[in-house]
Write a structure and sequence with these properties.
The structure is a single chain. By secondary structure, the protein is α/β, with parallel strands linked by helices. The protein is 43% helix and 15% strand.
């Protein structure tokens, strides 16, 4: 399996090269030459596997330049009870009306990002050791990517992390998780602006090929294909546990996905393209509904930073979703020239119109909806009253948007985004009391914090990387 750029300017590369590369040299994103297909027989054989061995079976289809025994060892080292809080990795949590939560937030930072990031930490260390080199990871976070990346990379040999976050735009718990880390290889940088400003800086630095090469810049954001591949696994897992005992071996499942940067739901699109029986991919946004508007109208119109709302589901406060480019690449028949022309149009006019392709949205299973602050408060209250379960605001967006799309006989799995403690102020507003706090996180906000706050300036970030690079 080799990888190309969505914009057509990169020669085919093996997986481990695009792993370390991050953004492609032409500014595009790495995609596999062809999406691997799975057979109904393979799906049935995978039903009885542990999560670690399921991950191995799925990932070996995308990773062909790592020996299979080594890859299996990496997945087994990653998906362990000691890391994910129990023997059942990714449990199913029934709610109501045909809806269940896919429990993705049992990892060390209490967010779904751990599912891929813990694997990436082990993978980076393995590949860098084999190559005898180092890597400086530059990332941007709207809340959960940063802490998941830092907890996965802290203390890893040959790796330094430079993580940009929007100053004052994350919850106190999210800030404390990241900024309290004192490891020498972790560098937290708060940027005066919004997440899109952070993401723009990452792309600008990665687009400076001379700087990128000199300082060996890599990425852990979902622009890195390895993140997407690892997330594909839990769609296969969710399908198998939701359809256990069903008479139809190819019974369908729908997934509702709270969406900011489009990476999580893109993994579902990939799984469906591989042959997984997914009925619908329900894209849920908050008030920053650029993606919902696209799937409703066919018009893509990202907003400026000044027009990006600060909401109570802050990890989705994103108006320019990086992974959307990978989906548009598929929508355009994997034609890099057409995609590049479209992105040139976007740069020139601020939008583009693909309404002529709307019939394909349904063919790919996509539907969409949006949720407001009032909606998520109401959903948190309703779910707690009816089931006793407390859900976080992003997951509440997913539940709210999922409800109109529930179909008889088709399980609807909402991808849990994080545990509610990460957004306790909103939980208290909804329920009148703070979110339950897991053991080990009692006083995290009181720990000393280590962070630099800077303006949204590319050169400033380059200077900080040059000073702290490994």
């Amino acid at each position: 399996m080799r990888y190309l750029s969505t914009r057509g300017g990169m020669a085919p590369q093996p997986f481990t090269d695009v792993l370390l590369e991050g953004l492609a040299p032409d500014g595009g994103l790495a995609v596999p030459e062809a999406v691997p297909r799975v057979t109904p027989e393979q799906l049935q054989a995978w039903r009885s596997l542990s999560y670690a061995d399921l991950a191995y079976e799925v990932l070996k289809l995308f990773i062909t330049d790592i020996p299979e025994d080594d890859l299996r060892a990496l997945t087994r080292a990653t998906y362990r009870p000691e890391v994910f809080g129990g023997d059942v990795i990714v449990p199913l949590k029934p709610l109501k009306q045909g809806i269940a939560l896919l429990g993705l937030s049992e990892g060390p930072t209490l967010a779904f990002k751990d599912m891929a990031m813990q694997f990436l930490g082990n993978l980076f260390e393995y590949v860098l050791a084999r190559r005898g080199t180092t890597l400086n990871i530059l990332g941007a976070t709207s809340g959960d990517t940063g802490s998941a990346a830092e907890y996965a990379m802290r203390g890893k040999k040959g790796v330094a992390v430079f993580m940009l976050s929007p100053a004052g735009r994350m919850s106190a718990f999210q800030r404390a998780q990241m900024y309290s880390l004192q490891d020498a290889n972790i560098h937290n940088i708060a940027v005066r602006g919004v997440f899109d400003d952070c993401q723009d800086i990452v792309k600008a630095v990665s687009g400076d090929l001379a700087f990128k090469t000199t300082h060996r810049i890599g990425a852990v954001n979902s622009i890195n294909w390895a993140r997407i591949a690892a997330q594909v696994v839990y769609y296969f897992h969710g399908w198998r546990i939701a359809t256990e005992g069903a008479g139809d071996p190819m019974a369908q499942v729908s997934f509702a996905v709270p969406s900011g940067n489009f990476g999580n739901i893109l993994a579902g699109h990939v799984a469906r393209s591989m042959g997984l029986p997914i009925r619908r991919l329900v894209l849920a946004t908050n008030e920053n509904n650029v993606l919902e508007e696209f799937f409703r109208t066919g018009i893509y119109r990202p907003r400026a930073s000044s027009e990006t709302y600060e909401t109570s589901s802050p990890s989705m406060d994103i108006s320019k979703a990086s992974n959307f480019e990978r989906f548009v690449y598929d929508l355009l028949g994997r034609d890099p020239a057409r995609l590049k022309a479209l992105w040139d149009e976007l740069a020139a006019t601020g939008s583009f119109d693909l309404s002529a392709h709307k019939p394909q949205f349904a063919q790919y299973g996509f539907v969409s909806g949006t949720s407001t602050h009032a909606d998520r408060l109401d959903t948190i209250r309703r779910v707690h009253t009816e089931t006793g379960v407390v859900i976080d605001p992003h997951t509440a967006d997913g539940v709210k948007v999922a409800l109109p799309f529930v179909e008889p006989g088709v399980p609807m799995l909402v991808l849990e985004t994080a545990l509610p403690v990460k957004f306790s102020a909103t939980i208290e507003e909804a329920l009148g009391r703070p979110a339950p706090r897991p053991a080990g996180f009692e006083n995290i906000e009181q720990l000393p914090q280590r962070v630099q706050t800077v303006d949204a300036d590319v050169q400033t970030i380059k200077d900080l990387i040059a000073a702290g690079a490994v």
